[in-house]
Structures are given as structure tokens and as C-alpha cells.
Amino acid sequence: MDIDVRGPRFGAAVTAVVLAVVLVTGSAWLLAWQTLAFALGAAGGVGRSPYGLLFRRVIRPRLGPPTEFEAPEPPRFAQTVGLVFAGVGLAGYALGVEWLGIAATGAALAAAFLNAAFGYCLGCEMYLVVRRVTPRAE
After folding, report:
1. What is the DSSP letter of 63?
2. Whole-number pLDDT of residue 1
3. How far apart are CA 124 and CA 108, in angstroms?
4. Contact in structure between 61 and 4 (CB atoms under 8 Å)
5. Band (70; pLDDT cuts 50, 70, 90)
6. 90, 101 contact by CB (below 8 A)
7. Cα–Cα distance measured from residue 137 to residue 56, given in angstroms and rounded to the nearest whole number
8. CA distance to 62, 64, 75, 78, 102, per residue, from 136 (Å)
């Protein structure tokens, strides 16, 4: 079942704010929260992430009906990519390798910002490339 494109964009906007705060404060705890949010989105799809639930229960009822939909697999893959970057960033902060925490968090922030501001989902595009180059069993 396709999903409302506004949901992942809302989640990306919240994610961008969270990651920006992580970069300003260096908070490993806040990055741990974002890592968990990515993990839930990767495991259950963006609709099951905390930001997806917030969108569905609080934001979407205040908006008009959706006019654009997308397949759930690319945003879910993007959540997995975000999980990897947030996990690497969290490891960097936790192990005292601050440059690694900053770099990985910054990369995740850049991707979230692209989606929130311009509707360009970098992880979704990666998903499509992987699908094109991966041989399929017939």
C-alpha cells in the first residue's frame, strides 16, 4: 500500500532539527534517540517510526487529503541508511572520536535536509539504484 509523501517529508524535517541540535550540543543521548527512531522506521516502515506516528495522528488530520503517494520501500530503505549513519555517529560520540560523530551526523543531517526542504530523498534514490544493479532471480 502506497504512503502519503508528506509523511516522510515531515519525518525528515523533524529529523533534520534533531540532528542539527545533536551537532550543536554534541549530545550522544539525543543521537541515540534519533538512532532508535531510524531503527523503528527501518524495521516497521516510516509509518511506524515515532515521527510517522506523530504525522498520522496529529498532523495529517489537519491537512487536506493526500494528492501524491509513493511506494513504502524506498523511504524504508532510506531509514536504514539513516540508521547506519546515526549508528556510526553514535559510536563516534560514545567512543570519544568526536570527528566521526560529527561527520556521520552531518551526513545524515544533509540527507534529511534535502528531503525536508526539496523533497529529494537521497536514500530513496539509492534504493532505486540498488534495485537497478541487483540481479533478480527469475
Report:
1. S
2. 86
3. 14
4. no
5. very high
6. yes
7. 36
8. 42, 39, 21, 21, 37
- pTM > 0.85: yes
d(CA 124, CA 126): 5
Give the integer Cα–Cα distance in Å for 34 and 17.
11
Longest dimension (CA), the chain: 50
Q: Residue 9: is it exposed, middle or buried by C-beta count within 10 angstroms (0-12/13-18/19+)?
A: middle
Q: Find the angle CA(49)-CA(54)-CA(59) to the nearest 5 degrees.
A: 135
- Average confidence score pLDDT of the chain: 96
10-49: pLDDT as tens digits: 999 999 999 999 999 999 999 999 999 999 999 999 999 9
Partners of 3 in the β-ladder: 70
**Angstrom distance (rounded) from CA 130 to CA 64:** 34
The CA distance from 55 to 71, in Å, is 17
DSSP state of 54: H
Q: How confident is the model at residue 136 (pLDDT cuts 50, 70, 90)?
A: confident
Q: What local confidence, expressed as pLDDT, does residue 137 receive?
A: 75
